[in-house]
Design brief:
The chain is 78% helix and 2% strand. The protein has 414 residues and is mainly α. The chain crosses the membrane at residues 15-37, 42-62, 68-86, 98-119, 145-163, 175-200, 206-224, 231-254, 260-282.
Length: 414
């Protein structure tokens, strides 16, 4: 990774931390998708906590604080924890959430006990083991980046190769079993991918915060994408952006890297929830307000057309009385219609312009067509089970089916 470090306009330490955070974001973002969509988000948390006793046991067994050995111990402990969770869920009456809680609490407690024991031995080599608990991105070296990159590439390549089988098992395990896929084996494989992500992230964010890196990118990406083939790369991209941004902010502010990365991820989730096109809270609120305005204007427009046909053009007070709305509401709708050029005023009385009359007739036609759909829609031989749009039924169904509905309505009226 030396060539990439040289390309970045950063100091060596900042470049190493930024690249490590990017690798973690890519791997955890893509692999965490399977945990979130399986509704097993806390599996990653349990596996991250289960890795801690593995680090301690590897240190006690070897007596050396070698990063490769300690991470191998973390991986083994994570695999044991994963198999234990699956075994408890499959072979007992305990539900998945309870199995996750049992493994998380017991393994993490064992890790804390072992850390305390190691600290009491006064072994000088034990200093720094707690970085696997809280993370210490500043301690990353170039060889750590190489190992992280290899693990990330292998895991992502495995996902790409087994994508169709993983997708089928993820969304429809019953069908996957019916077509001969090893459902249980694929579920264990998805859990093992989370172990790989945990091993990649232990040095950067630690066991406690690792779950955030598995969940946050997927939650943000889920607001923006609806297909798994789009969600995976988007979650990886968001994870990389969150990791790099958090690492650079932490470096400039001289604060711990892991918590800042998680806070940046939380900010990304909040922005996605608020601003995502089609799904964001603000987008939906704006659409709801726009729909309400359109409904109000259309209702007042139809009421005005009906009142004009029944007698002389009404004043605002007369229109409010005829429509059953308040004068303030009618006045707001009339101002919007006037702004759009649909009204002609004659003193206090209100007429429809040519455009206004055309819009009123179109609104009446849409209402009549919707009433016909409610009464005769079952008679249409539609090619699919579509859900028509009440505001524009003709566009939803097509001209042929809309004309057929109008014929049924005309026959019923005779």
């Amino acid at each position: 990774m030396g060539w990439l470090i040289d390309l970045l306009p950063l100091s060596y330490s900042d470049a190493v931390v930024a690249i490590g955070a990017a690798l973690l974001g890519i791997a955890a973002g893509a692999l965490g998708v399977f945990a979130v969509l399986r509704q097993r988000s806390l599996v990653g948390d349990a596996l991250a906590h289960a890795a801690l006793p593995g680090v301690c046991i590897a240190f006690l067994a070897t007596g050396a604080k070698d990063d490769a050995t300690l991470l191998a111990g973390a991986a083994c402990a994570g695999l044991v924890g994963a198999l234990l969770m699956v075994g408890i869920e499959r072979t007992s009456r305990i539900r998945a959430d309870a199995a996750i809680g049992v493994v998380l609490s017991s393994f993490f407690s064992l890790g804390i006990v072992l850390l305390t024991y190691i600290a009491s031995t006064n072994d000088s080599d034990q200093a720094g083991l707690d970085k696997y608990l809280f993370g210490q991105a500043a301690g990353l070296l170039e060889r750590d980046l190489n190992a992280m990159a290899v693990l990330a590439v292998v895991a992502l390549a495995a996902v790409a190769i087994a994508f169709r089988a993983l997708k089928t098992t993820l969304f429809d395990p019953a069908f996957a079993g019916a077509v001969g896929l090893p459902v249980r084996g694929l579920e264990i494989f998805m859990t093992m991918l989370l172990v790989v992500a945990v091993v990649i992230g232990l040095r950067t964010v630690g066991a406690i915060l690792m779950v955030a890196m598995l969940v946050v990118p997927t939650v943000a990406a889920r607001q923006l994408a609806g297909r798994l083939s789009h969600l995976l790369p988007l979650a990886a991209l968001i994870g990389a952006a969150v990791g790099v941004t958090g690492a650079l902010l932490a470096s400039s502010a001289q604060v711990p890297t892991g918590p800042v990365i998680v806070l940046v991820g939380f900010g990304a989730v909040v922005l996605a929830i608020l601003l995502a096109p089609g799904r964001g809270v603000l987008w939906r609120a704006r659409k709801l307000a726009r729909d309400r305005r359109r409904t109000l204007v259309e209702g007042v427009l139809v009421d005005l057309e009906t009142t004009i046909h029944a007698g002389p053009p009404p004043t605002r007070s007369e229109l409010a009385l005829a429509s059953g709305r308040s004068q303030r509401t009618v006045g707001r709708a009339l101002r919007m219609l006037d702004r759009d050029g649909m009204l002609v005023r004659d003193g206090d009385r209100v007429h429809l312009s040519q455009d206004g009359a055309a819009a009123a007739h179109a609104a009446l036609e849409r209402r009549d067509l919707w009433s016909a759909w409610l009464e005769h829609g079952w008679r249409l031989q539609l090619p699919d089970a579509r859900e028509p749009d009440p505001s524009d039924l003709r566009r939803s169904l097509g001209d042929a089916y809309a004309d057929e509905l109008q014929r049924y309505a005309a026959e019923g009226a005779r």
